[in-house]
Amino acid sequence: MFIQTIKTSGLAHLSYFVASGNKAVVIDPRRDIDIYLDIAKENECDITHIIETHRNEDLISGAPILSEFVNAEVLHGPNADGEVLYATTVKEGHQVRIGNLTLEVIETPGHTKDSICILVFDNDFDQGPVGIFTGDTLFVGDVGRTDFYPEESEHVAGLLYDSLQKIKAKAAASIIYPAHGAGSVCGDGMAEREFSTVQHEIMNNPLMGINEREEFIQQKITEHHYQPPYFSDMERLNMQGAPAYATFQMTSSVQVEQLENMRQQGYVLIDVRPIESYLGAHIPNSCCLPIDMITAYAGWLFSLNDKLVIIADDQNMARYAALHFARIGFDNIEHYFSTNMAMVAAKGSCFSTIDAVNAEQVKQLLKDDWHLLDVRKITEYEPIHIEGSEHIFLGHLADKISALSPDDKFITMCASGIRATVAAAYLQAKGYNNVKVFLGSIGAWQSKNYPVIKPN
Amino acid sequence: MFIQTIKTSGLAHLSYFVASGNKAVVIDPRRDIDIYLDIAKENECDITHIIETHRNEDLISGAPILSEFVNAEVLHGPNADGEVLYATTVKEGHQVRIGNLTLEVIETPGHTKDSICILVFDNDFDQGPVGIFTGDTLFVGDVGRTDFYPEESEHVAGLLYDSLQKIKAKAAASIIYPAHGAGSVCGDGMAEREFSTVQHEIMNNPLMGINEREEFIQQKITEHHYQPPYFSDMERLNMQGAPAYATFQMTSSVQVEQLENMRQQGYVLIDVRPIESYLGAHIPNSCCLPIDMITAYAGWLFSLNDKLVIIADDQNMARYAALHFARIGFDNIEHYFSTNMAMVAAKGSCFSTIDAVNAEQVKQLLKDDWHLLDVRKITEYEPIHIEGSEHIFLGHLADKISALSPDDKFITMCASGIRATVAAAYLQAKGYNNVKVFLGSIGAWQSKNYPVIKPN
Amino acid sequence: MFIQTIKTSGLAHLSYFVASGNKAVVIDPRRDIDIYLDIAKENECDITHIIETHRNEDLISGAPILSEFVNAEVLHGPNADGEVLYATTVKEGHQVRIGNLTLEVIETPGHTKDSICILVFDNDFDQGPVGIFTGDTLFVGDVGRTDFYPEESEHVAGLLYDSLQKIKAKAAASIIYPAHGAGSVCGDGMAEREFSTVQHEIMNNPLMGINEREEFIQQKITEHHYQPPYFSDMERLNMQGAPAYATFQMTSSVQVEQLENMRQQGYVLIDVRPIESYLGAHIPNSCCLPIDMITAYAGWLFSLNDKLVIIADDQNMARYAALHFARIGFDNIEHYFSTNMAMVAAKGSCFSTIDAVNAEQVKQLLKDDWHLLDVRKITEYEPIHIEGSEHIFLGHLADKISALSPDDKFITMCASGIRATVAAAYLQAKGYNNVKVFLGSIGAWQSKNYPVIKPN
Amino acid sequence: MFIQTIKTSGLAHLSYFVASGNKAVVIDPRRDIDIYLDIAKENECDITHIIETHRNEDLISGAPILSEFVNAEVLHGPNADGEVLYATTVKEGHQVRIGNLTLEVIETPGHTKDSICILVFDNDFDQGPVGIFTGDTLFVGDVGRTDFYPEESEHVAGLLYDSLQKIKAKAAASIIYPAHGAGSVCGDGMAEREFSTVQHEIMNNPLMGINEREEFIQQKITEHHYQPPYFSDMERLNMQGAPAYATFQMTSSVQVEQLENMRQQGYVLIDVRPIESYLGAHIPNSCCLPIDMITAYAGWLFSLNDKLVIIADDQNMARYAALHFARIGFDNIEHYFSTNMAMVAAKGSCFSTIDAVNAEQVKQLLKDDWHLLDVRKITEYEPIHIEGSEHIFLGHLADKISALSPDDKFITMCASGIRATVAAAYLQAKGYNNVKVFLGSIGAWQSKNYPVIKPN
User: D404-418, pLDDT tens digit by residue?
Assistant: First the structure.
């Protein structure tokens, strides 16, 4: 009898493998399901059920894929928008028994209307549940966002409040198992820690501590969250059931000579190496998106229909990047280029570079007509920024680029220089020839004690 | 920030790797420490501290070994009997900080006098500890045994009661992380489940539910526990610090022709294959001890000074067996024999067999002067057994064998037939020529509805 | 530029991964193709071609499966019987270039009419081939069998002679890479060694040393080889292309209570544990076929249409057995039983045993009306056997069992006792209640200096 | 019975595991010996002997380390300079038997005076050896260098000629197993291919084809080879026996704030990331040496006594780099810095960059007082170089740097830009502030059809 947590970095996603008596249930599986099969094999378990705590909008659910593989039933809460095609709808009180454990559904709408939580009872020690899978309803240190139904924002915030009170009442002695950890786009205040109890959250989680429904609603409706455009793709795919992810993709590596040609035919070249490598030398007109940034920004900058060519140090890095893309539905990746820019150049092909500049240099350049473009989130920018800087959130760069003149000179910045490099690369690939990256960005600026704007 | 549980089957031992901000603490490491190094490497952590919740009596502590490898300090509670040579003594309130976590010692004597528990605080959410490492003080469904100080059994049971109340008071909202799970020799009532909260234990654990000190003491002092003789070796080694376990042992495989010779020179031949294989054919005068039984019974049947030859299907099985022996201090294993009894016989060497008999056959044999020897624990035997059976606990067989005549005929039994085979093999190796194993044992007997003795 | 050998034990099959300049060719892939994909990935190669040296009759070719996975062309020699559906026919002189290597086809009929060998040239050092893939034409220490065209046995033996002369002429300085090693059903005289050169074979291989065509033919047509009935299935499947092997099979473990029921519905229960375990205790009416024996004897004792239930120590052993079955086309394996005969018996289920007897006991039993059944190959039996023993080759037992009376008492024997156990189990499962296994068999008998019959 | 090749990239070193009948011999093991233990374990072999074909000068021998671990004898040829402390001296005709194989020593001085080759005989097919381990005497496509005894260069070249004739005579039908493949500092003309036969070498290897002793000597003494200074360290260590390599090193990661301090205390900071990353942003005053370049250039640029801090993307990269250093005797590596230059800069620390320039830019810069420094080998420079370029071989840069003025401006170049970056970084770390790297170097220059100097 054990619960194993499966972390998916990038998405900060947590899924769970619950086993007892050679039967197992998987909660909120991700698209690349090998890991659940491996755990099942290692522990000689049959996966009999798969439960989705809600319809995910930030990643592809692996439930229909795993279901087909191991012939298990998928359970999903009551969905207002229509049927989840691959799932059985379950309501309050529905029970699943595996070995000596009983899993019981409680309905907890708010984050989404179909959100459920799952109580875990040990049949031999059944005075109250020992655990609760809380999906995106309750996190360690935060609660779910409630901005997915803009017309009824107060209503759903109120529903979430009610759901949290239900959890307090039914599962006060339980360990919580949420669907996300720190770094998720599904909430900003999450603890880095991944383990907690309902009781500890009552004492420590600011939103769990609010005991006035109206106060809770007011706080929730003033929160700011971004919704990347790919969320709507995820919602659609997670109703129908996305296809399986083929682990052996990209049989074809391409030659440097083909790259420019492919780009002109509409392929998007994406360099997934660390930003330092990109700055040092890169394929002309390639975009920059380091592996860790893929799940957060690919859905903003690119479309699920784009045909991608991955540029990486080697095939393993390319495959690993492709996996990150696949987790959020990017499947058009058949080609990669295993780069070594010295060899590229030695064959006579062109290369580009972008200068990294430090705070002192930035200060100097600003006197010389360079624009300072800050691409952080508005919630990062507003509290503190450099005078004269312009703000475009990195996720909005594709939409707002037309407001920038290709004849102007741009220094990009963010919190450290990583998102700034992604932005600078995007601009360079779109024909902006004068771009530099402020490496160190706001952090470096502050450590020099250069002046900043702090509204309050 | 994560806590990873490392299970060691056989011993049912749980150790923990606690990490935050690239620093880590290991709680109660086992002797084969590779797994902690691997986790450290995978997560890019430096192990800065190692904590022992108490002086282990059932296994070799890996603390001094890991300490030397990674240059980390070992912390241990105040020990009444003298100094743990490799450790720093820590008292109530001592704190260790790693990254954003604070670990704090509370003294919880009872199971042993040096028992401590460790509270885990998240510095950003510090209203009460979120977890507690409970060592052998509190398990899921049970509490620590208190029979290690026979002269002051009431006193230490009372200490344990007080310690549990301290846990309730200080860590009511915490997840518990005990040092053992179900199957340990350190407690009988443990849940198969390995996750719980203090609050859930208060509601479900029978001993945590007792609110009268005297009632608790009375219940504890009437419990029955066996103490294998190797416990005293463990206590000694865990004061001094046991040597590291060399993972590459047994460079020498031996030939079948050497086995009898080695046996006569004092080597003990131990066959670790499944009991069915042993029954089917085995090397004459070899003992039987399947891998899963090693940590539970090697310390009863053999001495740490014995020189062992492992008989296994292949080298991997032999190594895995040697690891189990090493975890409880058996280090004299340099040789193994990779058996295939058909090949052994084809070379002209002798082989032995033991008959497995079923309930019907047993019933018949009992009419024909065969003795039925039940080797279960007394706590299993007393509630239900077969009329006319004699009881010798398997752990006591070496001591009590002289009471059995080699001229008599014995059928051994237990709950299923596994311990019965270990016992039968032991007898056969000691020259008892008429032994059979009752496969299915009490279970098979009952399913036939044959009569049993049930005292109450 | 490397050649990696992939050994498949059981079948004693050798396949090859040949790589140069990030391109690769696979020679004679087996059905479970993961290993080729892994090597490709590790070395960042694209597999561009797959070559079959001939139509395999002893195993399922993985060529069509791998071909579909990596989109590579399959090449096959000219086939007299019709088209290999998934392959392109290549003739003498056909070349494939990968990186700096050239592979060149030479036609070498004999073993089969479509047999080809592949010369390997390094384009930078191209004075003669450096290697040759010899398929089943030339082995280390032996040459291919030529009994597949019984009506034209002299003709094909002659063809093989000519093919070997061609190899001597064209590839005298080459390393040889054959399709089988020692233990294969495709030849008896193979060296245990897997590396050789054409020149070394000329000096050491008895058949390569024959320089008279007629002498060679005479020797080949007097060889004795068995042809298991599944060979015809393999030939059919290797014309059409067998389906892929699903690595995640057997999601369903069955309970002991279901086994007898399933058996009565036509399932065949196959116990793949070591023979000692089977002898010690087994499920009534189950057959015995240890993992190592599967590829050699499953095709004799069972049919590709049989629905199998694997009985094993655990799921891993069951899966590994299923893989061996799949390599020769047995795909109807959805269920396994993870046995522990003590637990089986403890639940009240029945178990069977078979006695292992030694030479002395056999001698005694023979005086008491027991029949001694020797199941070795005729080529093993004829040179030496025990007086009074009856001979039925294990592969023929299913066909010839009707000649044995179930009322008689049988001791089975072979070279060691392994095949004898398979035979005894088969008899017991068919209702022969009096069977014993002579453990040690002819080897044990001889070591006692008991009398044997040696025709010469 | 098998021979497994173990490749060590970087060093282009080949070692071998030879097994028969559960005994094994390892030929020329490298320092990190885990791989031999793993192969032994997987194949259930005891390693009984270790053979060194000669005293290695380019890497640390693992023979004494492995010997101690598995208690095996080390064999070494007759050494003129004194005793190899950990080895038994073996002479012409010495035999080792394992299982069914016989290994036989033949003395083949030339490359070194103690060089031996090992013939491999299969006892069942013993007409001539089937394989020969040729050490550094004979490679695929080349023969050993003979410049280690400068005062007797003709003599030792003659010895090598004689040794090669001995190989032709004794092992004409053999597969060859040399100690190095393409890319080794022990020979320039080696084939990329790693498999060959003596016969094929006779036909294809230019030096094996020479049949006049004097002609052979003349050709050998005119060859040019570099001898890195660490060779003498290797020779010393490989007489005494180097200590084991501890696989778990570097428990301590350092903070960016400590780096400059450590550097001033004498630590050498070595950045092992790809050169593109180094160019993009790096820690000021760190050297650049990508992992693939370590074994070739660390011995030139640094001393075995230097205390190193590795700068890498993460701990795994740092460990992998440390392993490469350890293979050639650099053991003073206890610290690493896991870099992310954006975070470094965000904390207010400084960073440096180096510009990569293309052919057109170089052409322009040369008009503007920049010096073009070509760091290729003299054998690469002489046949083709750019007019006005200065030549300093990268390996000699430390020695010759004083000839360069820190006030001058340098563009470094090589064949592609990799060694050029190593050189530029070295200069920058030594205080040369104006350095740029010609990315693409001679290759890029030629593809532009810019003029070059070709002496002939």
Answer: 999 999 999 999 999
Residues of chain B scoring pLDDT < 70:
80, 246-251
- Considering the domain architecture, whether residues C99 and C213 belong to the same structural domain is answered as yes
Q: What is the pLDDT of residue D249?
A: 58
Point out the domain boundary residue: B193, B217, B240: B240
Closest CB to A46: pick one of C37, C46, C252: C252
Q: Residue A277: what pLDDT?
A: 98
Q: CB–CB of C41 and A251 under 8 A?
A: no
- Both B308 and B373 in a single domain? no
Task: State pTM to two decimals.
Answer: 0.90
CB A28 within 8 Å of CB A56: yes
Helices (H) and strands (E) in chain D, counts: 16, 22
CB of C257 less than 8 A from some CB of B: no
Check: complex ipTM more than 0.90: yes
Write the CB contacts of A144 (distance below 8 Å, at least 6 apart in sequence): A110, A111, A115, A135, A136, A137, A138, A160, A186, A187
Cross-chain CB nearest to C274 (options B277, B279, B444) = B277
Q: Do D37 and B252 touch (CB under 8 A)?
A: no
The last residue of one of the domains, among C180, C214, C240, is C240
Low-confidence ranges of chain A (pLDDT < 70): 80, 246-251
Which amino acid is residue C241, in one-letter code? G
Cβ of C443: how many Cβ atoms within 10 Å? 22
Please answer yes or no on whether C342 and B416 come within 8 Å at the CB atom: yes
Whether A252 sits inside 8 A of C316 (CB atoms) is no
Q: How far is CA C167 from CA A368, C95, C113, C138, C141, in A?
A: 77, 17, 16, 9, 15
pLDDT digits (tens, 9 = 90+) for D260-274: 999 999 999 999 999
Closest in A71, A248, A315 to C251, CB measured = A71
Token digits of residue A388: 């004269």
Closest residue, chain A, to D341 (C-alpha): A276
CB C180 within 8 A of CB C56: no
Is C45 in contact with C72 (CB distance < 8 Å)?
A: no
Encoded amino acid at D322, one letter: A
Q: Is the pLDDT of residue C216 over 50?
A: yes
What is the rounded CA–CA span in Å between residue B314 and residue D363? 68
- pLDDT tens string C150-159: 999 999 999 9
CA–CA distance, B234 with B298 (Å, rounded to integer): 13
Residues comprising chain D, all counted = 456
Tokens of B76: 């241990």
Asked if residue D65 lies in contact with residue D247, where contact means CB atoms within 8 angstroms, the answer is no
- pLDDT number for residue C340: 93
Q: Which DSSP string do the residues of A287-326 spell out, in sequence order?
A: EE--GGGHHHHHHHHS-TT--EEEEESSHHHHHHHHHHHH
Residues D198 and D278 in one domain: no
Dihedral sign of CA atoms C270, C274, C275, C279 in order: negative
- Partner A contacted by D208 (CB < 8 A): no
Give the β-pairing of B2-8 and A409-413.
unpaired
The answer to whether residues C339 and C401 belong to one domain is no
On chain A, the residues whose CB falls within 8 A of the CB of B124 are 141, 191-192
Do C223 and C359 have their domain in common?
Answer: no
- Whether the CB of D416 is below 8 Å from some CB of chain A: the reply is yes
Task: Reply yes or no on whether the pLDDT at C246 is more than 70.
Answer: no
Provide the chain C residues 313-342 that lie in CB contact (below 8 A) with chain B: 313, 340-342
D147 has a pLDDT exceeding 90: yes
Per the CB < 8 Å rule, is D351 touching A313?
no
Q: Are residues A258 and A233 in the same domain?
A: no
What's the CA gap between A114 and D336, in Å, rounded? Answer: 49
Q: Are A207 and A160 in contact (CB under 8 A)?
A: no
Q: Which domain holds residue D385?
A: 355-447
**3-class state of residue D166 by DSSP:** helix
